[in-house]
Amino acid sequence: MTEPRNTDSWAAPVDAFHVGEVAEGARKGNVEGRKPTGPLQGFGRLWQKTYEVRMPGPTPEVVIATWKENFGQFWYPSNKFYAPAGGIAPGEVAVIGGGKGPTKVTSGVRVIYADERSWSYMTPEGHPWAAIITFSAHEGDDGATVARIHLLVRANDPLYEMSFKLYTSKLEDKIWNHTLTQVASHFGVAEPRIESSVVLIDRKRQWNQVSNLWKNSAVRTLLHRDR
Amino acid sequence: MPTANVTMTVRDATPKVRVIDIQGEVTGFSEKEIAAAHEEAAAGGVDAVVLNFEGLDYMNSGGIGLLVTTLIRAKRSGHRLMAYGLTDHYCEIFALTRLDEAIELFDTEDQALEAI
Q: Were A31 and a residue from A101, A108, A214, B15 both cysteine, which residue would form a disulfide, CB within 3.0 to 4.6 Å?
């Protein structure tokens, strides 16, 4: 067996998130020391969500480089993305502050993979989602570049699962539609058309993960334990 | 859409265990190939499906996502999903994504078959 060609694109495994240097104002309490959680560790049903936009002109590599550099600006306006000092690179941890009032949540993401055409985040305990979120770009059949956001996601605990249908799933749709619209607009697309699909991968809830509730970031943010 | 640069061949290891030999790249564009291979491997009911990664050239995070959905399919079908032949690097990737907590990893096919 030969060594694979993309070893540098992957982050090293860690037992817990460690926040490095991030912008002033970031609250690290719901991120520092938290275990990574993927779609196998969450509580709720497992969903696959895909959002895409087509852009004639820029290459996939240019789209991804620009998107990485401006991720916070392209993101949903009521959410704040505190980019890591090292940028979107394998192993870096970003802090997120989102929402208002009772829906306010501070949390974060870790970059587990990054190359010229894609990167992926994994979420920490307490984040609304136990997820792997992948941002990518590729050539479409018509020669245009397709920017894509792909999520494999479970609600992390029963509270988040309850809010999924009521609120957070729709909010997530808004966030990623907004993000792709911003990316496409940056590259001069006048009226970006976002295509999306949602597939239920696993309808079973993972009751052995019910204790994830103790790390719920929304509750901890509400109680000001996120500092 | 880019084409998948991978071949997946299904073979019988024992009457109740099938192996998927993976050759090439596992990326998000390999969805049809891995879904078809798993469906063929699971047909008729098996105790386990074993993924042979000895011929793996490259895998990105899109490929990891496909392994998650394959694992869910395996659970739904009621059989185990196992793997062998991963380099140290990709064993680390399984640990990074916590896939190693759900997909049983072995060094060789013999070791995987003995564990069933």
A: A108
